[in-house]
Amino acid sequence: MTEYMGKWRVAVTGASGYIGRQLLHQLENMESIAGIVGIDSKPLPLPIHNIRVYRQDLTEPLGNILQSNAINSVIHLAFDFRQFRDSQHSKLIELNNISSLNNVLEACSSSNIKNLIYLSSYAVYGATIDNPDYITEKFEPQPLIGFQYGAVKLASEALIEEFKANHPNVSVTILRCCMVLGTHSDNYVADSFRKPLLVRIAGYDPPMQFIHESDLTRLLGSLSVAPTHGIFNVAGKGTIQYSKFLKLMRAKTVLLPAFLAYPLVEISWKLGFQKSSPSIGLNLIRYPIVLSTKKLEQATNFEFHYSSEDAVLAHVNSHVN
Questions:
Q1: What backbone torsions phi and psi does residue 218 show, to the nearest 5 degrees?
Q2: Average pLDDT over residues 212-218
Q3: Please, what is the Cα angle at 9 between 5 and 13, to 5 degrees?
Q4: Rounded to whole angstroms, how far apart are CA atoms 61 and 41?
Q5: Is the separation of the CB atoms in 264 and 284 below 8 Å?
Q6: How far apart are CA 177 and CA 196, in angstroms?
Q7: Average pLDDT of the chain?
Q8: Euclidean distance between CA atoms 12 and 117, whole angstroms
Q9: Which residues pair with 211 in a beta bridge?
Q10: What distance in Å separates the CA atoms of residue 292 and residue 296, rounded to the nearest whole number?
């Protein structure tokens, strides 16, 4: 953990997004933060004190936003989750995500940044039959081929590692986070499980991890003023079986053998009947990705308040019941 005695001025990209807007509320109540900058192409839904907002598309250079506001801590949340059947449109989304990250890194390079935090994903590890019971940060990432989200997150991590090598005085934190749910859930995770009919693979009922949105924003707030160098897994306490999760969500399901589920989902994807993901996404509900968070807990002493099941129940009680 890097020591810094001055006041922190924090910039958040993706500030009007699901996590971003809740993080801003967290930051505005922290005495160690002297100022906040929110950057997003969309307006903030609610007013935040002590903040300067920039309506900025990150695919365009940030100019002197960080310098003019004396920013010394950056949290990069902005990410376009969309994946299209059309490979040309999907490639454009991928390029936009990489371009946005490059512009953030370029702005950090020309500013007095002391701390950079990037929200990555558990999806970089991939969901395969060979996954260990608990995945540590030493496990080699192997995102699913054809599942764009994990691949782009891993490519982003590579760019950040390159930035870190060229800027040894900047503390760089990469958080490989599990799925996020809570009382304000408005993200791709919640959308994925709101479908009229969800698939279960016969013979498989993997344990799943979720983190409560308030735990994640508390963690991001803490790291924004207490730089902690490294790559860390992030997940709520414990796991919840996929079958129990679906029951709590009151989801309608169809149980299919793998040899039927994969071609049917692939056909529905290609014909546009569903827009969630191609058939490779079924691996995420077939094989477990269970993260070990020991490294994070030892490095930060951070304590998660909610379990995976708590996060699901918070969403259910706010949106399903």
A1: -65, -40
A2: 96
A3: 140
A4: 13
A5: no
A6: 27
A7: 91
A8: 10
A9: 180
A10: 9
Express each pLDDT in 279-301 by its tens digit: 999 999 999 999 999 999 999 99
Reported as a single tens digit per residue, the pLDDT across 138-159 is 999 999 998 889 999 999 999 9
Residue length, the chain? 321
DSSP H or E segment with residue 73:
strand 73-76
At 212, the amino acid letter reads H
**pLDDT value, residue 194:** 74
CA dist list (Å): 277 to 81, 93, 148, 286, 288: 11, 15, 9, 14, 18
Fold of 8-182+210-235+290-310: Rossmann fold (3.40.50)
Domain ranges for the chain: 8-182+210-235+290-310
pTM strictly above 0.85: yes
CA distance 112 to 208: 40
**Token pair of 103, please?**
């512009």
Q: How far apart are CA 244 and CA 246, in angstroms?
A: 5
171-177 vs 210-212, strand pairing mode: unpaired
